[in-house]
Design brief:
Two copies of one chain form a homodimer. By secondary structure, chain A is mainly alpha-helical. Chain A is 68% helix and 5% strand. Chain A contains eleven helices and five strands, in the order βααββααααααββααα. In chain A, the strands form two sheets. Chain A has a three-stranded antiparallel sheet. Chain A has a two-stranded antiparallel sheet with strand order 4-5. In chain A, helix 8 packs across helix 11. The longest helix of chain A is centred in the middle third of the chain and has 35 residues. Chain A is elongated and about 90 Å long. Chains A and B meet through helix 1, helix 3, helix 5 and helix 7 of A and helix 1, helix 3, helix 5 and helix 7 of B. The first copy, chain A, binds a DNA duplex through helix 2.
Chain lengths: 251, 251
DNA sequence: GGTTGACATTGACGCTGCGTCAACTTCTAA
DNA sequence: TTAGAAGTTGACGCAGCGTCAATGTCAACC
């Protein structure tokens, strides 16, 4: 018994296009090809096709299926590996769902325009939790209301300032200069002044809290959301080190 | 302030390729293009880019992000819609994981070669649960051992017979003939004889159980794993109806 | 035998979101 | 000024098919 491509597609519950794809990739070649180029399949091909479709429903990729069917890989092992990958995906999805839910409630709660990233640890929609927990509710609400009172132009200017600073950090980091060099320390001072200009940042005596500066530097490195603004972990480490030297010398 | 494509990519924690992609799609065009074709971005573009990246991390697609940023769609609504889609994906993943786990334990448990689909409700790895629950453990074990005792050639022949039968059902269904026509009834008889030839199928008097035949027909329609072997729900319905007429007339 | 129209089959292009890469510029140090 | 490093560009690739224009096949009709 032999079937045309349509017929076997219906028998197996798939489409002729899929069959042609499986032929192109060599996964399920037709048992015979007519003189006109038409593909014909026998029952062996049908059995193979059905095994392929079953594995596909489980989510395995085509190359893996090919190796399993040709006996190059143990099926249980392939499925176990695949299961691990599925679990990772599940975790990713769970985290993503949580993020989306959090963003939605944040957007609904305040009238804040979305995602006001300030290039720093003061993004109010993103870092509220950490700031409140470590430095008290005042630290958050003070800088939050200060930020909200700004006009659009002022916000933009502030952001631009932050961006330029971040850019200079990046540029300095890629040149590989030392954290205690004059240049790095000049950058640290700019960063310090910038932070001081923000109401709500924890103080100590006449300046910023030394502890706060250290904590912030650590956050830059450990939290990817910060780190990416300073060129990833490498760049962020440079910033943290420079800030630490600055704090030791000046605070 | 103005940055090159590399610089803004690092500032935002992404790659220059992504930037060019966002330019092509119109999502984040550069603020200026040099005479040499180089792209340059200002702080407005940077802000826009960061909003895009934030939404991308939440999993939204590029077209949707574009509509949200241009104010054509409410952001909360877009996120809520996206959340629904994420939950669907989550469900899909959960089911897939369960399937893979089930398949693994089945494969580990018995020495059965994987996925011996018989084109019918007797696939031992797939339908054991339903058969045992409805028709008792004997029905399953009897046909299971009968099947296992077969040689590879015999199995193949049996499968081929089933495939031909399924094919003829399909072909008859697409022609739109009646379930009580002679032709359909001839097919029903072939199906009946085929089922009778399998030990373990529930009996009643000198033939197959009428109830069993009805149950099987219903399964063909309601269970997608069966239905797809008979051309989806439409084809399976035809088979079920023909079997029902056959049962009424002959059992 | 030739023609028409319905239905099949084929390969090519499209899609998502970029990674990778050959070819070409620009910038820097000597 | 020139060699070399670093940056930039558009083109191709990828996973797994859906969709589609062009062509092929086949039964029916003239």
């Amino acid at each position: 018994m032999e079937w045309s491509i349509q017929e076997i597609a219906k028998l197996a519950g798939t489409t002729s296009r899929t069959l042609r794809h499986y032929d192109e990739t060599g996964l399920v070649p037709p048992s015979r090809t007519g003189g006109n180029g038409y593909r014909y399949y026998d029952s062996d091909a049908l059995v193979r096709l059905q095994r392929v479709l079953l594995l596909r429903e489980l989510g395995l990729g085509i190359p893996v299926i090919g190796e399993v069917l040709d006996g190059q890989h143990d099926d249980v092992r392939a499925l176990t590996l695949h299961l691990a990958w599925l679990r990772e995906e599940q975790g990713r999805l769970d985290r993503q769902i949580a993020s989306v839910e959090g963003t939605i409630t944040t957007l609904k709660g305040g009238e804040k325009p979305m995602a006001e990233n300030m290039f720093d640890g003061f993004d109010h929609t993103q870092y509220e939790g950490e700031v409140v927990e470590r430095w008290g509710k005042d630290a958050y609400t003070t800088s939050d209301s200060w930020w909200r009172a700004k006009s659009a132009d002022e916000k933009k200017a502030f952001k631009e300032f932050g961006a330029e600073l971040a850019f200079d950090w990046l540029e300095a980091a890629t040149r590989g200069i030392d954290a205690d060099s004059d240049e790095a320390q000049a950058l640290a001072r700019r960063q310090y002044d910038w932070l001081v200009s923000i109401p709500g940042t924890p103080r100590e005596g006449d300046g910023l809290s030394k502890q706060y500066l250290g904590w912030l530097g650590d956050m830059y490195v450990t939290d990817p959301r910060f780190a990416k603004n300073y060129g990833g972990e490498a760049g962020a480490t440079f910033v943290r080190d420079a800030l630490k030297v600055f704090a030791d010398r000046n605070l």
